[in-house]
Amino acid sequence: MAATILTAIPILPTPDVAASLAWWINICGFTESFSYGTPPSYAGVERQGARIHLNRFSDPALARTVGEQTMVRLLVKDVAEFYAEYQQRGGTVHPNGPLQKKPWGTTEFAAIDPGGVCVTFQE
């Protein structure tokens, strides 16, 4: 019997785990699954089976540099509805990433999290 990979959990860099937690919870509608430390240095969020971990870099400049080089894509059922929810919660859409149908067949929008990570929500 072959092993089965069930999911992937990206670990996103951030200079401030608390700020990133707030963004994922308050803007993206995730719930906190755990946090470690006070203030938190590592934490996890989840929403309907999607999980993200957040890792604090001790050097804020390095965290920002790594964050700006990191991208994550989340598959969403009814991305247009999620787009409306995201904006109603006060989310800022990336200037080059409004909701649109892409030539490769996905409908998606992009945002930048507090750590500088480009987060794309797609269907």
- Rg: 15 Å
The tally of beta strands, per DSSP, is 8
- Low confidence ranges: none
The number of helical runs is: 3
Give the number of domains.
Answer: 1
CATH topology, what is it called? 2,3-Dihydroxybiphenyl 1,2-Dioxygenase, domain 1
Strand portion, in percent?
25-35%
CATH 2nd-level architecture: Roll
What this model shows, in words?
By secondary structure, the chain is of the alpha/beta class. The protein has a single domain (11-122), classed as 2,3-Dihydroxybiphenyl 1,2-Dioxygenase, domain 1 (Roll). It is 24% helix and 33% strand. The strands form two sheets. It has a four-stranded mixed β-sheet. The mean pLDDT is 95.
Write the layout of secondary structure elements.
Elements: E1 11-14, H1 17-27, E2 31-36, E3 42-47, E4 50-56, H2 60-68, E5 71-75, H3 79-88, E6 100-101, E7 107-112, E8 118-122
Parallel strand pairs: 1-4, 5-8
Antiparallel strand pairs: 2-3, 3-4, 6-7, 7-8
